[in-house]
Specification:
112 residues, mainly alpha, rod-shaped
Length: 112
Amino acid sequence: MISIDHQLLHQARRLITGANVHLIGTYILLYEQAVKLHNAGVAKYVHYHAHYEKLLREIVRATLRAKTLSERIRLGTSRAQNLWEQTRELQPDIDRKIAAKNKSPKKLKNVA
């Protein structure tokens, strides 16, 4: 008898969005049905085939990776935006210092 991995189902359900609801929902259904049919002794499923479980595990893994990468991109973009704003705030001071440096009298080198 095969038991359903409730942790896997919980993870999969937490990752459902409007964009992937049908895909993940289908994988969950296929996995649950494969386990139920095997446990019920249906001839075709006497030997449990982990194909649908593997598919569900892979979609959970890939979705978690994508979610992690998306969050890292969001944080990097936010950091870049903050640095850009700081640069814009500092630019007038930098421009004044450069202008002041260019206006100061230049020292001539003694040529001997």
